[in-house]
Design goal:
The protein has 311 residues and is α/β, with parallel strands linked by helices. It contains 10 helices and 16 strands. The chain has 2 domains: 118 residues, RNA methyltransferase domain (HRMD) like (Transcription Regulator spoIIAA, 2-Layer Sandwich), CATH 3.30.750; 178 residues, Vaccinia Virus protein VP39 (Rossmann fold, 3-Layer(aba) Sandwich). Helix content is 30%, strand content 26%. It has a 7-stranded mixed sheet, with helices on both faces. It has a 5-stranded mixed sheet with strand order 1-2-3-4-5, with helices on one face. A two-stranded antiparallel ribbon has the order 6-7.
């Protein structure tokens, strides 16, 4: 990371703040590698709180200039106009991803809005705050396609897809994730939106050991697969994704849809398309969903890939 590039960072940041919606949003995406010297920095807007992430250790000159620039930002008219309240710097590269509050008083558990739906964030204690912002269009798509459907949400995390599905009129959503704590946050997200929890199931199970339980609530008209790229001891992308795909014909209703996602730069769209042909040839590739413009990448195959398939 180059201190000389921070002038561009602050120029882009002020521009995006000026146009920031009254929703949670990525403001600067250095990880898309479009800004030389800023590849390891991102900045998110949590409706009053600015969340800056560093993904690689920076030298003292860079850090000092970054912090000074962020503090100077709080004295500018744009900060007052958007009612900024806090700035947090998180060191994602370090053990425990420690955070430091540079300005204001952090609200570590704010409720934010995306596409009119509410989500509870958890800022500063984990690497991720509970909602992957690059998946906004994916959640919007699910909301548009979920009406009167049984929906299966695999690797549900905090159940963002589930919230979108119920908001879109789904009859039932089954969320599966090994982490009970994440599913508990998902339950809270549904409550925030005043959803009927009788329409939502939460299965804290290892997917690969629970196909019988998962199948009981089927068949499903819509299945979402959004796994981590790697999770030690439980999921390795190139080996385990195919194990899920081969189960799809037994889980899907005729005409059912699948939203298959992968966010690893190590594989491209062909990995999913070819794997589906190999493991579940009854399903046809329909299209790739666009990513939100704020997540532009110099190589679209390295960015988030969200693909629609039909049975």
């Amino acid at each position: 990371m180059q201190a000389s590039s921070l002038e561009l960072f602050f120029a882009k940041l002020k521009q995006q703040l000026t146009n920031a919606p009254h929703e949670v949003r990525r403001l600067f995406h250095g990880r898309g590698r479009k800004y030389q010297g800023l590849e390891q920095i991102t900045c998110d807007w949590a409706q009053g709180q600015l969340l800056v992430n560093l993904f690689k250790q920076a030298d003292e000159a860079f850090l000092a200039q970054l912090k000074q620039g962020l503090l100077e930002l709080t004295q500018q008219p744009v900060w007052q106009e958007v009612q900024g309240s806090a700035i947090v710097l998180q060191h994602r590269y370090d053990d425990g991803a420690p955070s430091e509050v540079l300005f204001g008083e952090l609200n570590s558990r704010p409720v934010v809005v995306e596409s009119g739906l509410k989500y509870q964030l958890d800022i500063g204690r984990n690497q991720n705050f509970g909602l992957f912002l690059d998946m906004r269009y994916g959640r919007d798509w699910v909301r548009e396609h979920a009406k009167h459907k049984n929906v299966l949400n695999l690797f549900a995390y905090t159940c963002g897809f589930s919230v979108a599905a119920i908001a879109g009129g789904a009859d039932l959503v089954v969320n599966v994730d090994m982490a009970k704590a994440s599913l508990s946050k998902g339950r809270d997200n549904h409550r925030l939106n005043e959803h009927n929890l009788n329409q939502v199931k939460f299965l804290a199970h290892d997917i690969f050991k629970s196909w019988g339980k998962i199948k009981k609530s089927g068949p499903y008209e819509l299945i979402i697969i959004d796994p981590p790229s790697f999770q030690k001891g439980s999921f390795a992308l190139t080996k385990d994704y195919k194990k899920i795909l081969r189960r799809l014909p037994d889980l899907l209703a005729p005409g059912g849809q699948v939203l298959a996602c992968v966010n690893s730069p190590q594989v491209d769209c062909d990995f999913l398309i070819d794997s589906m042909k190999e493991e579940a040839p009854q399903l046809s590739f329909v299209k790739r969903l666009e990513n939100p413009p704020e997540f532009a990448d110099i190589d679209e195959q390295a960015s988030l890939k969200v693909l629609e398939f039909c049975y």
